[in-house]
Amino acid sequence: MKTVVVTDSTSYIPKHIRENLNIHMIPLSVVINGETYREEVDLNVSDFYDAVKSIETLPTTTQPPIGEFEQLYSKLAEEYDAIISIHLSSGISGTYQGAVAAAEMAENVRVYTYDSEISCMAQGFYVLEAASMAQAGKTPEEIIPRLDELKAEMSAYFMVDDLSHLQRGGRLSSAQAVIGSLLNIKPLLHFQDKVIVPFEKIRTRKKAMKRIVDLLAEDVEKGKFLRATIIHANRVQEAADWKAELAVQFPTVDFSISYFGPVIGTHLGEGSMGMAWTIK
Description:
280 residues; alpha/beta; Hypothetical Protein Tm841, Chain: A,domain 3; six-stranded mixed sheet; DegV_domain_contain; DegV_C
């Protein structure tokens, strides 16, 4: 059985890696001043954060049309027997539901949709694992259980500089946003039951980042062999410095750096930082 992997742009896997692993990507879009841009296609991450600085109204985001899934699945059906389609959490976007609807209409190919229940490179971990296994000739019946193993061990925490982005986008309640802003709280956030919720309330950015490190250390001390990614919103040097520090502190962990792209960055805002990790 020939299996291929599909994901959406919010996994933020670099193009050269997608090409090497034969990963096919469906883009979500951001709307800036009435113009629609497909992230990772029409708009890169640095241009996005530059554009946001010069506008008064926050961008909005849109999920891919079902037709785009249908077209891609139909094209892939010409060459593959099965498709594993991995997407951002169904609790914050309708993208996964769009994939499910298109999968039900797909002909001459079996489509296995997978709700990552998360986003960004945490979602990307599933995609990379599935694509590597597919290239090694593994079947969907072998790949999906492995993704479930990763999910059971997945941890991801992030902090934002300005809660208003999450509140305006409907991803956080107005009350939580107001309280956080008034008290200068930098809450640690995480995904729970597919949606973004506060994990702990922390006063400063420095303390929030240290708390993430403490949580990572707890898993390292359990003897788990981990891969981790630092995720930043236009904080390239800060992410690089953090990675250098962590690589010394945790030599057994494989660290990488990723980013909050336009769609997720619209909801989190510039300056956000986070980290995700799971078992190797």
